[in-house]
Amino acid sequence: MNFCSDNTAGVHPQILDAIARVNSIPNVMPYGNDEITKGVGARLNEIFEREVEFFAVATGTAANSLALAALSPPWGAVFCHELAHIQQDECGAPEFFTGGAKLMPLPGADGKLQAAALDGALQGAGAGVVHHVQPAAVSLTQASECGTVYGASEVGAIGEICRKHKVGLHMDGARFANALSGLNVSAADITWRAGVDVLSFGATKNGAMAAEAIVVFDKALAATMAFRRKRAGHLFSKMRFLTTQLDAYLSDGLWLKSAAHSNAMARRLADGLQALKGVRLLYKVQANEIFPVMPLAMKSRLEAAGFSFYEWPTPEARAGEIALRLVTSFSTDPAHVEKFLAVAGAVARGEAA
After folding, report:
1. How far apart are CA 6 and CA 289, in angstroms?
2. How much of the chain, in percent, has pLDDT values that exceed 70?
3. Does domain 12-254 have CATH number 3.40.50.300?
4. CA-based Rg of the chain, rounded to a whole angstrom?
5. Phi/psi-derived region of residue 157, left when phi > 0, alpha when psi is between -120 and 50, beta in every other case
6. Which residue in 348, 268, 256 sits closest to 301, CA to CA?
7. How many CA atoms lie within 13 A of 202 on its CB side?
8. Per-residue pLDDT tens over the stretch 285-294
9. So where are the chain's domains?
């Protein structure tokens, strides 16, 4: 009954079966020169409704850092939200792979960059001034670290600002499927049609073992990506074991079905918690992350019942309260969700343990 992260979930059985099937095929060409890898490219072309270039890697950190390296020189500046994964949780990898580019964190409600604030920051960034890092890129997290989602119009507004200031636009899509599942738009609508140049297309958090794809919409950026990936140690000799994960992930809409289940479990948790006395949510629940503020006694009872989760630091929690982060996954058991709500409800009603 672990709600710490979608990373705690295992591998989707269909993806695990695909890995086993590939393992039984003898003499497959290495370094991505195989039919499975080519097939993934074709699937991505269909999903994004245009020809794209893609580069499989094993981690989201690699995907984000290599994508940003293609967008920014060492003297560049990458603008992102102050809670963005690249700012908070990549251990300096974006700075390392770009050769020294500076991350420029900006505030924004609900974990999202605001178009007007971004425009102002880029306007005052000192473009052309030799004493300043030069604005090179903007990075959006989709879904955000607060579980909120950028709609197509929001991405489009930011895309227009990027074009105005002649900077590239990267999307960290570690939970891209969860974001897309909650929107009535196509994958193309919230990426290249809205101005995104390169996408880190996540699969690991949504059922893969270890597989991400750097999806490049601007072919000029793709020219150096193969060399960047090799230099970074992410050109796998047995590439088929990465790309077969992506192939199974994309087959028959598995990626969206998995995300839909994850999102539905989050929505059920959110609805149930909001109905309880003493509980409120910090952010809208638009993907698979929930951020409730609850009495300390409720948190303690949930832990005693066997639930795991992370605390979420926030000034919104008052004396006697605690904020939590709950994350659901493709494998979240509905019975665990109902038990979580039953335990929390008993505390809200003042029932003894």
Report:
1. 9
2. 100
3. no
4. 21
5. alpha
6. 348
7. 24
8. 999 999 999 9
9. 12-254, 255-348
